UniProtKB/TrEMBL annotation:
Protein name: L-idonate 5-dehydrogenase
Annotated stretches, region: Disordered: 1-23
Keyword check for Zinc: yes
Cited CDD domains: idonate-5-DH (cd08232)
Domain Alcohol dehydrogenase-like N-terminal: residue ranges: 23-142
Family note: Belongs to the zinc-containing alcohol dehydrogenase family.
Family annotation (Pfam families): ADH_N, ADH_zinc_N
Keywords: Metal-binding, Oxidoreductase, Zinc
Keyword Metal-binding in annotation: yes
Entry superkingdom: Bacteria
Annotated ranges, domain Alcohol dehydrogenase-like C-terminal: 181-296
Length: 345
């Protein structure tokens, strides 16, 4: 089978690998669609993502969906042909969370993730034609949800988890700084759960256009002289740019809540943080998700439309080009998808 494999910085290839067979408790998924994420781009550009560094070639991809092709021994209740996506996280070991973290499995100290070099051996992802999946990680798609949209359940789960890290947003005005794919999914998630107004801010007009299509009621083009609004009670920072923190904190109301969704650098970086103290702002981090992928599938079933986010589609064999487009700020891209199988739909 074909797989999109990163071998090192700027070295991604279409490799031929044996078609896997499902073991006990596994299914074989014939993959159809995959979404390119920032971590995929980082492995391609730098040979690393965060603190995870390539030691061996790695199949990229953790935003995937397809159809069940075969069942391993002991698997029941799932039929061949079932469309499904994947919860890409698998806890390692039996570490118990303290009571204060009950249910927050995203905070377990050791988790294998599709398409990650955090462990050696690495955990191959799903940018390939077939992938075995432990049945516990399989998520059948609801009726009416295509595999193309099902591949976006994972990043939508990230957005829904972030929304859950804030106080109630129903009926409130909310600011989202950064309107890339996660920021635009935050806009859609906030509108889905009942936010009255969602203001999206970015330096890229194309990103703001996508945010409007995803439900933003106002936009601020920070490249054209517009500024962030004032005194917003709930704010989501989705750009991950340290330079944005000062203006974002200043836009947050006194006693307000700021949720940090964009990944910040792991190295020292200048940022103006004084308002965090003087305005008594609550600043919460948001990391991946626990089981919100199930909520994401329900939201897709109930009509949350991710179509405006999808800007490009490439065949698996065009993986290198797809990564280059996704990484290019000048491309104006939203979510870049890969067709992983010939029966994609």
């Amino acid at each position: 089978m074909k797989a999109l494999v990163v071998h090192g910085p700027r070295d991604v290839r279409i490799d031929e690998r044996p078609e896997p067979e499902p073991g006990p408790g596994e299914v074989l998924l014939a993959l159809e669609w995959g979404g390119i994420c920032g971590s995929d781009i980082s492995y391609w550009k730098h040979g690393a993502s965060g603190t995870a560094t390539l030691a061996h070639p790695l199949v990229l991809g953790h935003e995937v969906a397809g159809r069940v092709a075969a069942l391993g021994r002991g698997v029941t209740g799932i039929a061949a042909g079932t469309p499904a996506t994947v919860h890409p996280a698998q806890p390692v070991g039996d570490t118990a969370l303290p009571e204060r973290l009950a249910g927050r499995t995203n905070l377990l100290p050791r988790v294998r993730y599709f398409g990650s070099a955090a462990f050696d051996p690495h955990t191959d992802g799903g940018f390939c034609e077939y992938r075995t999946v432990p049945v516990a990680q399989l998520r059948p798609l609801p009726a009416g949800v295509t595999t193309e949209h099902g591949a976006l359940a994972e990043p939508l789960a990230v957005a829904l988890h972030a929304v859950g890290r804030a106080p109630g947003v129903r009926g409130r005005t909310v600011l989202v700084n950064g309107a890339g794919p996660i920021g635009s999914l935050l806009v859609a998630a906030l509108r889905h759960v009942g936010a009255a107004e969602v203001i999206a801010a970015d330096v890229a007009p194309a990103a703001l256009e996508t945010a409007r299509a995803m439900g933003a009621t106002q936009t601020r083009d920070l490249s054209g002289g517009q500024v962030l609004p004032e005194d917003v009670e709930v704010v989501f920072e989705a750009s991950g740019a340290p330079g944005a923190l000062g203006p974002v904190l200043a836009a947050t109301a006194r006693g307000g809540h700021l949720v940090q969704v964009g990944n910040l650098p792991g190295t020292p970086a200048p940022a103006a943080l004084g308002d965090l103290v003087t305005r008594e702002i609550t600043w919460s981090g948001s990391y991946r998700f626990a089981e919100e992928i199930d909520d994401a599938l329900c939201a897709l079933r109930d009509g949350l439309d991710v179509s405006p986010l999808i800007s490009h589609r490439f065949d698996l064999t065009e993986g290198a080009r797809a990564l280059a487009v996704a990484a290019d700020p000048a491309s104006g891209c939203g979510k870049v998808l890969l067709r992983l199988g010939t029966t994609a739909g």
